[in-house]
Amino acid sequence: QENLLEVKHLRTEFFSSKKSSVTAVDDVSFDIKKGEIVGLVGESGCGKSVTSLSIMQLLKDTPGKITNGEVIFQGHNLLDASKKEMLDIRGDKMSMIFQEPMSSLNPSMRIDKQMIEGIRLHTPLTKAEARKKAADILSQVGIPDPQRVLKNYPHQLSGGMSQRVMIAMAMSCEPDLLIADEPTTALDVTIQAQILELMKKIQQDKGMSILLITHDLGVVAEMCSRVIVMYAGKIVEEAPVEILFANPTHPYTQGLIASVPKLGSGVKVLPSIPGSVPDLSAMPKGCRFAPRCKYATEKCHQEQPELLSVGEKQKCRCWLKH
Ligand code: SF4
Ligand code: MG
């Protein structure tokens, strides 16, 4: 199957001065096929959001800079694209849903105007048809009174409501690739389920690909066909979803899975991974997970393992496996 996106040896550094930087995304490579939903998981601070901002070329408001690698989207390296080309791609072929809805809504424009303009950029619909489509999508993301919301400005909406409007806007242009960064974290479970359902439906109807960034493995199990696990700026494991849950090979993945609450198990205190993600400016010399890993040996503290195949479709970065 055809690759829609290929990320190759991506490195993103954050510069505090010309000479001093820390590496937030370190030699990350993966691909997304057409119509596939890939989960990108890991605790916060592991580089998931920076990876997605790097793909979208949206690092400009940060001290971050891509210093190596390629981002091949539909056969073109986005790192060579001009600002204008990137604007076109982002408005049409790739959309992103952020944790923070206000960053993608225009505060000075009513919702109807923003949505209708967006829809008409990508479809031959008339204004009236686009307005109807906007109302439809708003009701699909669980907004009870779309006509009222359409007349509002963003500041008139509650946080949860603006989150849903942003999701509706991203879906309305039917992008080839949707990057969703913790899209439903702030919403209650019912709305969350509705929105995930909707994303899945659009993905199936339109063959959209989704990169779903989340720390919620329940969402991953529900939505994704393949999972990439990141730790401290690097990919540590990659596998099809069933394989990852049945046979997680990296101790970090094992810890994440062990922390998922099991429904009806009566377990209230969850085993979580002790310690925390290392600071970017103080990365361990060997395996980055070594300070938290119960299997760590002297070699783990000294030398970095590579990401290598451990099965037909599974990759793992751990000395225990090779
Ligand atoms: Fe743990 Fe060593 Fe594997 Fe790192 S390489 S995850 S420290 S066993
Ligand atoms: Mg994040």
TrEMBL record:
Origin superkingdom: Bacteria
GO MF, any single term: ATP hydrolysis activity
UniProt subcellular location: Cell membrane
InterPro entries, alphabetized: AAA+_ATPase, ABC_Ni/Peptide_Import, ABC_transporter-like_ATP-bd, ABC_transporter-like_CS, Oligopep_ABC_C, P-loop_NTPase
Domain (ABC transporter): residue spans on this chain: 10-257
Keyword match Amino-acid biosynthesis: no
Signal peptide: none
Family matches, as PANTHER family: DIPEPTIDE TRANSPORT ATP-BINDING PROTEIN DPPD, OLIGOPEPTIDE TRANSPORT ATP-BINDING PROTEIN APPD
Protein name, per record: ABC transporter ATP-binding protein
Organism: Fusicatenibacter faecihominis
